[in-house]
Amino acid sequence: MISHNMEQPKVSIIVPCYNSEAFLAETLQSCINQLYPNIEVVVVDDGSTDGSLQIARQWEARYTNIHVYAQPNSGACRARNLAMEKCTGDYVMYLDADDIISVEKISSQME
After folding, report:
1. Residue 50 in contact with residue 3, Cβ under 8 Å?
2. In this structure, are residues 103 and 23 in contact, taking their beta carbons and an 8 Å threshold?
3. Are strands 91-94 and 66-71 parallel, antiparallel or unpaired?
4. Which residues, in sequence order, are CB contacts of 99 under 8 Å at separation 6+?
């Protein structure tokens, strides 16, 4: 178990996003709801033609640990690669833009 009197390792949650406006807010909420305190969320919009990028930017404006990047449509692999370049975590978790994670997912994995 991780000691709480030492700084906990940072976990980067990488979320590639393409035309996911119907799901993205709920996905980001599940990231923000994590019981594990030291996370960052790196969203890379892959040239969405819907409101995905605007939704991601709204979340980025509200939370200092959400970072949003945009690229021309190049595919999920390139979006993940860009997110890997931008993230600063000690550990990385991949999450799709239409996935929901339980509040204890990261804390239980870190134990």
Report:
1. no
2. no
3. unpaired
4. 27, 30
pTM higher than 0.85 for the full model? yes
Helix 24-32 with 52-62: angle, nearest 10 deg? 20
What's the whole-number mean pLDDT along residues 86-99? 98
User: Is the pLDDT score of 3 beyond 70?
Assistant: no
For 21-47, the pLDDT digits (tens) are: 999 999 999 999 999 999 999 999 999
Q: What is the DSSP string of the chain?
A: ---TTSPPPPEEEEEEESS-TTTHHHHHHHHHT-SSS-EEEEEEEES-SSSHHHHHHHHHHH-TTEEEEEESS--HHHHHHHHHHH---SEEEE--TT----TTHHHHHH-
